[in-house]
Design brief:
single chain; alpha+beta; 5-stranded antiparallel β-sheet; 10 helices; about 45% helix
Amino acid sequence: MKFLPSSLVARTSLLLIVGLGIVELAGLGIHALDRLDLAERSQMHDYQMQVFSIYRTIAETKPEDRQNVIDELHIPSSTTVLLLPMPDQEIHSHKTPLPFFPSGRPPFPEHFGPSSNGFGPNGPPFEPGGPEGPMRPIHGGPEGRGPDQGGPFPHPDSPEGWHVPGMDDHAGFREMPPIGRWPFLPASLYPREMWTGQELRTHSASLLLPDGQCWVVVRYVMPLPNPLEAPTFIVAFLVMSLCGGALIVWATRRLIAPVTTLANAAEALGRDVNSSTVLPENGASEIRRAAIAFNTMSMRIRRFVSDRTLMLTAIGHDLRTPITRLKLRAEFIDDDELRNKMLADLDEMEAMVAATLAFGRDSASNEQVVSLDLRALLQTIMDEATEGHPDQADNLIYESPTTPVRIMARSVALKRALNNLILNALKYGNSAHVTLIPPSQKKEKDRYACIIVEDNGPGLPDEELDRVFEPFVRIETSRNRETGGTGLGLSIARTILRAQGGDVRLQNRAEGGLRAIITLAA
């Protein structure tokens, strides 16, 4: 997928951050539902408080003054209070049982008898006694009601600003849930019936006053709670997301760092089999296993290549002695023609052995890597080629940039490889046009300098463009070493270039001839 990041660190971090976001959203959703439920309960508690306070205020008022009292009450906009001859008809309601009286108090029937403390339908209203003492009458009455004389008035310390006069002195009463306060009403104020109903978010409570003349209907529209109302809600989410994302990125980079180290070590081993890169064998068990496996593999590869190179070099070296003896014996052949043929074959064998020794020597080379100016190195090679082939000096062309091109390389080996490619172009293509292209100025991880060597020769078949780099492969099939060579020049050149982090490839030119493209890490 093209929208996914390319690096393993970015992909893993993205996956974990998305997962963290999903988990946080789920947690915040659960938290929001809990807040909604708590808000619903709080609003219902406030509604019951309002119903209790409004009913008591109206029940204590004379029938002819009840509507005036309702008009004077500071009722919130979400609450509607009505006096109706019947329960609320606009909202479907059902009869609700009233709470029981406490022990020793009579339930509300049709009649109350006088009591020793004036408790009855004709006596003054009383407050509950509570744990502090006996009940006492509520001061004030329907006339001249004020903030301290009865009725629900705004109060800063009460829910939704409602206050029940005369109750502040009773801590137990204030802590009691609203449904538990009904039995503590004086019997003369106790409602005869109560009907409740709900439609969507509108609640309705209808209470029949003790005198049975009318119903107090309280409608309350419960507002929609907003779980995001608190500013800390979004801030907490953002802080958790940022901290969690930063921790994920840090941990992912730390955990995947060994993978990057392994990739760099494998790349270095691919460029130079003699690279001394050794991975640290520590960390997690999987990382240790991978490091041990890589170190063992690189050691075996180096040993295999070294053994093969030493064997090839030893064979080439041992062949030089019998070749020399054969040359001496060939001098005693009387037939001049036969003697010349044998000496030519021995010369070719000696050249092949020398090339084999050079190939082995270059493969096992431990030359130090140094910083060099590629532009100056190519100029030296071109000058030496001109001195060695003065008759073809006009066919040697070199185009270089105006600024130095510095790279890290093994100078002797690199000079041998480039010299081989340029002389091949001059030998088989009758010309060598060399162009040096400096690396890009952008700060990229992989920057390469490019060298293009072109000739005007016949070119090669497309299927042979890569095969010519194999050892002892000669496209010119004659046995003449002057024309066919030994078949090791291009192999040696590619081996040297790849060992230094570069490469070489061939392609045919559209106008004729061959083009060699050499890349070197800058």
